[in-house]
Amino acid sequence: MMMVGGCARGVDGQAVPVADPRPVGFIEFADAGFGITAPPGWTVREDSDELIYGDVALTKNGDDASMILIGVLDGSIFASARADNRVAAQELGSGMGEFFFPDSGTRVDREGGTLSGAQTTGAFEFYRVEFDDRSRSDAEVFSAVVEKAGERWWMTWLSNKSAVDVDEACELAESITPM
User: Fold this and answer.
1) Mean pLDDT across the stretch 57-84?
2) Which parts pass through the membrane (predicted)?
């Protein structure tokens, strides 16, 4: 095979199919200007155009207690004023947790770190909420902010029954691909 003007050609001059460089499960959101690789079992929520926050909502098949929201980090999100991605991720997680889980409780098991995807870098924050009303299931919040060349995106994974898979959440955040 040889390259001719950026096109792959076989030895006999015939076109050679080029594999799609995007991973299996990659979903493009052209209107929002990004794509992601959805975790296994997660699909785009049909009513994503009616979201309060974000451009995309993902739900997990058989798990109505978990949701992932993803969007462009612009002025419509309270964390956008924070230039530091770690601080923005912390503020994003705090705000989303208070909005979706407004009952009083204590944040425990906090952790955070950096993210380094194929095209973006950023930071994440995770915590669990132990509600004062112990008859309620604990809630978990994972938030991330990633950027490339001054553009930023955010992601929040919320759950009040199933555990948030922090490794899977990091992989999802790192999969955010500017289009």
Assistant:
1) 90
2) none
Rounded to a whole number, what is the largest CA-CA distance in the chain?
72
- Amino acid 62: pLDDT: 84
Q: Residues 73, 75, 76, 78: is their CA dihedral positive or negative?
A: positive
For residues 151-170, average pLDDT: 93
Task: Find where tokens 């006999």 sit.
Answer: 12
Between CA 38 and CA 16 the distance in angstroms is 29
CA distance linking residue 171 with residue 105, whole number of Å: 28
- The rounded distance, in Å, linking the Cα atoms of 124 and 169 is 9
CA dihedral for 80, 163, 129, 123, sign (positive or negative): negative
Which among 151, 91, 117, 132 is positioned nearest to 37, based on CA atoms?
117
- Note the pTM of the prediction, 2 decimals: 0.84
Question: What are the structural domains, with CATH classification, of the chain?
Answer: 22-178 (3.40.1000.10)
The alpha carbon dihedral of 132, 137, 170, 59 has a sign of: negative
**Backbone phi, psi, residue 178, to 5°:** -60, 140
